Amino acid sequence: MNVESAQKKKFQIENSLRKQGFSITNQRSLIIAEILHNGPHFDVESLAAGMHMKNSNTARATIYRTVKILVDTGMIKREMLGDTHSHYEIAERDHGHFVCISCGKIIELACPTLTGFLATVAESHDFTIDQHSIELFGRCGDCQRKRRIEEAA
User: Fold this and answer.
1) Enclosing domain of residue 132
2) Which are the contacts of 111, defined by CB distance < 8 A and separation ≥ 6?
3) What's the average model confidence in pLDDT over 75-104?
4) Predicted TM-score (pTM) of this structure
5) Residue 135's domain is classified under what CATH number?
6) How far apart are CA 42 and CA 4, in angstroms?
7) Residue 94: left (phi > 0), alpha (psi -120 to 50), or beta?
């Protein structure tokens, strides 16, 4: 996410939280900025470590509380993507993930054709999809290459 997009998204999130009755403290604002800086997926521990490296004195409990508020208000989504801990991402509609079962890498999957296909299947079952999230598990290109090299040796 470029700087301009991140600033716009930060403003949108903070404005939405204010409308829902939450105050935007300096620490909460820093946490939101760090979430947007971290990229599409993050876990709370990496978020806390990133803030600590930037000399933020934000308490870990404050980070957890803020993430919970962001999940509860729909600003971010909690995902279990193939391992034992939660990953979070900015809430976007209708997308999925490729999840590498070897290294844990997560690759965004945005496919309008898939969305159209799902709508057609849903309609044939008299079902309306409000949103979807799809996880596909396999091996990323790096792990496939590494596996081929190991098998050839």
Assistant:
1) 93-152
2) 95, 96
3) 76
4) 0.64
5) 3.30.1490.190
6) 20
7) left
